[in-house]
Amino acid sequence: MDTTATTLPSIDLRRVDINPDFWYPIAWSKDLRRGKTIGRRFGRHPVALVRPQDGTVFALEDRCAHRQVPLSKGVVEGEAVKCCYHGWAYGRSGRCIDVPYLGKGKLPNGVKTYPCREAGGLIFIFPGDAEKADAIPLPPLAQVDNPAFKTRHFSPAVGCHYTFMHENLMDMNHQFLHRRQMGQIRARFLGQDEGENFVEARYSFARSGNQQPLAERLIFGKHVDDPNRVQPIEEVVTIRTTYPYQSLKIHDKDGDLIMELFAAYVPSNADGSSCQTFGLLSVLRPKTPLLIDIIWPALGVFTNRIFLEDKAVVEMEQQAWRELGGDHNVEVFPIVNKLRRLLARHGVPHEDAPRSHRA
């Protein structure tokens, strides 16, 4: 295995935009009531999501063609949304279908529309080439439809480029960061795999102290530290980036799936320096009835504390990138370098990236 420090000499990964030719979650279904519209963003693109009283959700550019006022501030009537300013109305095709003070034969052009779908409690849009949308599948959404699992939703905003999030989860060697929450554990790298559109790393964890979080103990059982023998592999943790999504799966020693995470990191501003996370965390229900409901609040607190530590450190990375004027990371872990190449290969150079980064 090559363990030399390698970088991407002609590409600053933080100047690589996410590829728009995929389905991206942009809101939770529960946040958009019938007969209402809400505004969201995909990178530099504002998006209005509209849910008619009858029919499916549709997505439009969140700017009225008239004065550029957000359509998400408008009023939903039937299968259309009316701009709050002058009442211009747009249907799900994006075409302007009414201007109250003009004749029907004098209607202006409409606004951009995005293919839109709902699945797993999420609203997805396809922000790229709309003609590709039907050929691109939605990603697997953890175990959200499996009654044997209970699924938690989370959607924190993070002030960093989406690639920092991929690196953070893929590199399990950062458990020192979580020592207050997880106790003393050490990641053991078990192997890797890669293909044209994915990179995968597998780990187990050795506990070097007796402290074990309550939520972890209730879900996985008690792990006892025995300094007189090599600790057995109790669970295998598999982290996989299948561009542009990321997943984490935990299998027990018998090979049974006991936890699965789906995560997508959606750029939320024009320069890519922040992203909105959409995650589904599915946990296998214990055999004891109602136990999962009893421990669910504790699991929520535990996972939230872990994430807040990750959020703080990736935002520090983003700040360092900003102050140094570029990506100065010296990466020594081979699987992370493979991940970086994957993200660079499938991404799109940002519009203000130097020419060498666009090559």
Automatic annotation (TrEMBL):
Residues 23-125 form the Rieske domain. InterPro entries: Cholesterol_7-desaturase, Rieske_2Fe-2S, Rieske_2Fe-2S_sf, VanA_C_cat. The keyword Iron applies. It comes from the Bacteria. GO terms for molecular function: 2 iron, 2 sulfur cluster binding; dioxygenase activity; metal ion binding. Coiled coil: none annotated. Keywords: 2Fe-2S, Dioxygenase, Iron, Iron-sulfur, Metal-binding, Oxidoreductase. CDD domains: Rieske_RO_Alpha_N. PANTHER family: 3-KETOSTEROID-9-ALPHA-MONOOXYGENASE, OXYGENASE COMPONENT, IRON-SULFUR DOMAIN CONTAINING PROTEIN. This is Aromatic ring-hydroxylating dioxygenase subunit alpha.
